[in-house]
Specification:
The complex is a heterodimer of chains A (162) and B (784).
Chain A: E1 7-13, E2 16-22, H1 28-35, E3 54-57, E4 60-63, E5 76-78, H2 91-98, H3 108-121, H4 127-134, H5 145-157
Parallel strand pairs in A: 1-5
Antiparallel strand pairs in A: 1-2, 3-4, 3-5
Helix pairs in contact in A: 2-5
Chain B: H1 17-21, E1 37-43, E2 49-55, H2 57-61, E3 65-70, E4 94-95, E5 101-107, H3 110-119, E6 121-126, H4 133-138, E7 150-158, H5 161-167, E8 170-178, E9 190-195, E10 201-205, H6 210-221, E11 228-232, H7 247-259, E12 263-266, H8 269-275, E13 282-290, E14 296-306, H9 314-323, E15 334-341, H10 357-374, H11 378-383, E16 391-392, E17 398-399, H12 404-415, H13 417-420, E18 428-438, E19 453-459, E20 465-469, H14 478-490, E21 497-501, H15 518-544, E22 552-555, E23 558-561, E24 568-570, H16 571-582, E25 585-591, E26 611-622, E27 629-639, H17 646-665, E28 671-672, E29 675-676, E30 694-700, H18 722-734, E31 737-738, E32 740-741, H19 745-753, E33 758-759, E34 773-775
Parallel strand pairs in B: 1-12, 7-34, 8-32, 10-11, 14-15, 20-21, 27-30, 31-33
Antiparallel strand pairs in B: 1-5, 2-4, 2-6, 3-5, 7-15, 8-13, 9-10, 9-12, 13-14, 16-17, 18-26, 19-20, 19-25, 22-23, 23-24, 26-27, 28-29
Helix pairs in contact in B: 6-7, 10-18, 14-15, 15-16, 17-18
Chain lengths: 162, 784
């Protein structure tokens, strides 16, 4: 990839301003993983089919494999690395760990972020609402049940800082 | 102070959980090394063709391309089984499926690597593709390998089944088909290779079987194994799909050697479908003779396996389609014939349940029909033919603990099966089935007398415990099981255990995370190592206190006197005492399964030191207009021996049920004109969160005498009864028999409108099986 074809992209990721020089066609997924070292964001198809690459943009689930970083300048991007508040994990992270909702852990970052978007919008979702919200994120390990239970447990404990 | 368990049996958080929920777990594709290149593989566009020419000159000339490989660069054949060394890292003379690797490039970025692939000119002479079992057996096209498409044919008989069949009061025969499907791990396979200036090769790979990859690298690269280090990275899902030797692992290694730069190859999702090694399509015929009160007198079972283009685990898969019939049914006389053929499809191999979900579907739907004919309920038929604990099956499999009856009772009572199945509205139904699975294969993949699993412990003077084992966590929780067992024996906390796993330079051998073997075998090795090192600590403490060694107990990070717990030392002090006395405090433990194979050729597949048992009831809700089958509720009971961590066992059971429902209702790997119909996550249908049923999971503990703390397997067995239970439930709901997996809406509608009220194969192809190997039957079956 010739250097001359690169463009400067300024992004706000996990609350930090970052700037990278990348080919304009490089996806957000690639920029996060390869240029910013945020390998917590995974990929399962790079075609927008599995949501394994899910991140949050302005608090809403977003497929990073289909997103062009230039389009996201000025938006707030959150990856799994940005879920914890310093040393304090997100209640969803704690609940997923406690209930065995992360088996291989590969879909886990996207599952957690998608669940976070749900709880921010609906702090006490029904089981059906959880199923609906997570239905785009494929998991092959768990059969989804421990994930539903973990989301419910986290919801019952409430958002951190009350 | 009692000897109750402090860690084993508790649903504690597994040691790798927080790394996983924080995105810190480093999967293979997350690794990046300085000066790393990107490798890509050119794959065959033809299902069956002779390679005429592969011209790489234009690709080599592309700026940014550092190396291009073809088959001649890696000419040594390999395969996971010593009897099936039929694969090449890059095909040399022939391609055998769409996706068969032909050439590879390493370039400074992935775009250049992709562009280089397009510049490779490959010419082929196309051959007639062989795309089905029938075509392979017909033998009217050029064979895929050698002179015949028959890869393996077996014929075994235990007692005179023909005579028993003649004497039977009731005989039934069924023919069913199970279409192939694939593992679909969310993580695509990936490998990173580095060849150091010291002449040492390191391969990081998402593999369930780093030891076997290590052996294959040594063979194909012609390097001494001592100069190769294989590190398995945490697998982002395996399910059997990462337990073979893959082209990209060998290619990445060779590219690193050629370029002297690190090389990463990550498969695309489409390539994962070609890597496959998944569920074999199997056509089966089952015939059973019974007394009129429903006691089995004989069984004859035939299977035809569609193996795809290469051997892979296929010889083992072939035997597995006939191995476990008699672990759930007391069958006095048994004949098993099977043939695996080559076809021009991606190679099939082991997927969760390896070779046994297909015959289990055949068996459990068959017995549902048999029960109806005999006027028995399907539960009663099973109860009349239960295997006994501490027995040998007619094909010589040794059963130790057996909780099958308890499993049956749990799901039947929990679901109200017997009453509710008679009163369901049309479209709703309940189905029932049982199963059994191995806790690790009793024989290794390559013949040797060494242990199957080994663990090393090294204690440090601060009380930390380094645990080294070759086993890799593929999401099943093996890290936790190892740590929990060692922590339990040493009386320390889980967080005191530091794990180093699956690194061939550092860790003693474990054969791999396949065949449901790690909890059982690595668990036993860990327990042995921990008991040995605890003995050293007890001796040192007994000298210091002083007291009798037998008087000591390890608990709560202390070594104390059993009846005077105030008298004792901290665990760290105990280590210091032992280290002062004898230097480094370390011990190893190994596990070698008992020699259990029966006295006949082919007896190596099937024996296991212990078998798990499962029973399931599935409720279906069928849409009579569309033929769609939904599963609102599942009751599943699993004889786990002992649950070392109940929440992890439940996770394995629930994941098995989920995967079974996908296979039962939607997942299939099928082909059109040699092309995979669905090589993407969108088109290959798998269940989403919306399809997740309510599940009632019952863990039955039988405390197996051979398992670590009595534990048996959990990862595969619970998948097995669910698929036939779905089919039986569809019959209960609609009165139609779908004798073919998956049970898709079109088949349901077709069966409903067809006079036979059935969809499924009518017959099996004519095939001359080899002469029967007539094996002796165990003493307990003589004269029965």
């Amino acid at each position: 990839m010739p250097i001359a074809d690169r463009v400067a992209v300024r992004l706000r990721v996990n609350g930090e301003e970052v700037a990278v020089m990348v080919p304009p066609y490089k996806t957000l997924l690639e920029v996060l993983r390869e240029d910013l070292g945020l390998t917590g964001t995974k990929h399962g198809c790079e075609l927008g089919e599995c949501s394994t690459c899910g991140v949050l943009v302005d608090g809403r689930p977003y497929l990073s494999c289909l997103a062009m970083p230039l389009d996201l300048e000025g938006r707030e991007i959150t990856t799994v690395e940005g879920m914890a508040d310093g040393s304090e994990p997100d209640p969803l992270q704690v609940a997923f760990a406690e209930l065995g909702a992360a088996q291989c852990g590969y879909c886990t970052p996207a599952m957690l972020l998608t669940a976070r978007a749900l709880l921010d919008h609906d702090p006490h979702p029904t089981r059906d609402a959880i199923k609906e919200a997570l239905s785009g994120v494929l998991c092959r390990c768990t059969g989804y049940l421990k994930i539903f239970e973990a989301v419910e447990l986290a919801a019952s404990r409430g958002r951190r800082h009350g | 102070m009692a000897d109750e368990l402090a860690i084993v049996g508790k649903s504690l958080t597994k040691p790798d959980a927080f790394a996983k929920v924080s995105g810190q777990t480093r999967f293979a594709d997350d690794l990046a090394l300085p000066r790393m290149l990107f490798g890509r593989i050119l794959r065959s566009p033809h299902p069956h063709a002779r390679i005429v020419r592969v011209d790489t000159s234009r690709a080599r000339a592309l700026p940014g391309v550092l190396a291009v490989l073809t088959g001649d660069d890696l000419p040594i054949k390999f395969g996971i089984l010593p009897v099936s060394q039929d694969e090449e890292a890059l095909a040399r003379e022939k391609v055998r499926y769409v996706g068969d690797p032909i050439a590879a490039v390493a370039a400074t970025d992935e775009w250049i690597a992709d562009e280089a692939l397009e510049l490779i000119e490959a010419q082929f002479t196309e051959l007639r593709p062989i795309m089905s079992i029938e075509q392979a057996i017909a033998a009217d096209a050029e064979p895929i390998h050698g002179t015949s498409n028959v890869h393996k044919a077996v014929a075994l008989e235990f007692g005179d089944t023909d005579a028993a069949m003649l004497a039977a009061q009731h005989v039934r025969e069924d023919v069913v088909f199970f279409e192939g499907n694939t593992h679909l791990p969310m993580e695509q396979h990936a490998a990173v290779a580095q060849y150091g200036a010291d002449g040492k090769l390191t391969l990081w790979t998402s593999s369930q079987t780093p030891h076997y990859v290590h052996r294959a690298l040594g063979k194909v690269l012609e390097l001494p194994m001592s100069r190769i280090r294989v590190i398995a990275t945490p697998n982002g899902g395996g399910f059997g799909g990462k337990s073979d030797i893959f082209s990209h692992e060998l290619v990445a290694a060779r590219l690193a050697m050629v370029t002297r730069r690190p090389v990463k190859i990550t498969l695309t999702r489409e390539e994962v479908f070609y890597a496959h090694r998944g569920r074999h399509p199997v056509l089966m015929k089952v015939k059973t003779g019974l007394t009129k009160d429903g006691r089995i007198t004989a069984m004859q079972f035939r299977s035809f396996l569609d193996g795809g283009g290469y051997g892979s685990y296929g010889v083992a898969s072939t035997y597995y389609t006939g191995a476990l019939q008699a672990t759930t049914y007391a069958i006095p006389r048994y004949r098993f014939e099977a043939v695996r053929v080559f076809t021009n499809k991606p190679p099939c191999g082991p997927k969760r349940g390896h070779g046994t979900p297909q015959p289990r579907f055949a068996l459990e739907t068959h017995f549902d029909k048999v029960a109806e004919e005999l006027g028995l309920d399907p539960v009663e038929l099973r109860l009349r033919n239960l295997p006994r604990p501490d027995s040998r099956t007619v094909n010589w499999l040794r059963i130790t603990s057996c909780g099958l009856e308890a499993c049956i009772n749990k799901v039947v009572e929990g679901s109200g099966f017997l009453e509710r199945r008679r009163s369901m509205p049309r479209g709703r139904g309940l189905g029932f089935a049982v199963s059994s699975y191995l806790s690790g294969a009793g024989t290794a993949i390559y013949w040797n007398d060494m242990p199957h699993s080994e663990v090393q412990l090294k204690l440090d003077r601060n009380g930390g415990v380094a645990l080294l084992c070759g086993a890799i966590d593929i999401g099943q929780g093996s890290d936790h099981i190892l740590a929990a067992i060692v922590a339990e024996v040493l009386g320390v906390a889980l967080e005191d255990i530091q794990l180093t796993t699956a690194d061939t330079d550092l860790t003693p051998i474990d054969l791999g995370s396949y065949s449901s073997r790690v909890t059982f075998m690595a668990g036993n090795a860990a327990k042995a190592a921990a008991e040995k090192v605890r003995g050293q600590l007890f001796e040192a403490v007994a000298r210091a206190l002083p007291c009798d060694v037998d008087d000591l107990l390890a608990r709560d990070r202390r070594i104390v006197r059993r009846n005077q717990p105030a008298e004792g030392v901290s665990f760290a002090q105990a280590v210091q005492l032992a280290e002062a006395a004898g230097g480094v405090v370390t011990a190893t433990g190994s596990y070698t399964p008992p020699k259990l194979a029966g006295p006949y050729k082919g007896s190596g597949v099937g024996p296991s030191p212990a078998y798990s048992f499962s029973a399931a009831v599935v409720e279906v809700d069928c849409d009579v207009r569309t033929g769609e089958v939904r599963v609102p509720e599942v009751w599943i009971a699993h004889d786990i021996g002992r649950a070392i961590n109940p929440v992890l066992v439940e996770g394995q059971v629930e994941g098995s049920v989920y995967m079974a429902l996908g296979e039962a209702l939607m997942e299939e790997q099928t082909f059109r004109l040699g092309l995979h119909k669905f090589p993407s996550l969108l088109e290959y249908k798998s269940p989403t969160a919306l399809e997740a049923p309510v599940m009632h999971t019952y863990l039955v503990e039988t405390i197996d005498r051979e398992g670590p703390f009595g534990a048996k397997e959990a990862g595969q067995g619970p998948l097995l009864p669910v698929i036939p239970a779905v089919a039986n439930a569809v019959y209960n709901a609609l009165g139609v028999r779908i004798d073919e997996i998956p049970i898709t809406p079109d088949k349901v509608l077709k069966a409903m409108s067809d006079r036979s009220k059935r969809v499924g194969p009518a017959s099996t192809p004519a095939f001359e099986f080899p002469p029967l190997i007539k094996a002796d039957v165990p003493e307990e079956w003589k004269g029965k």
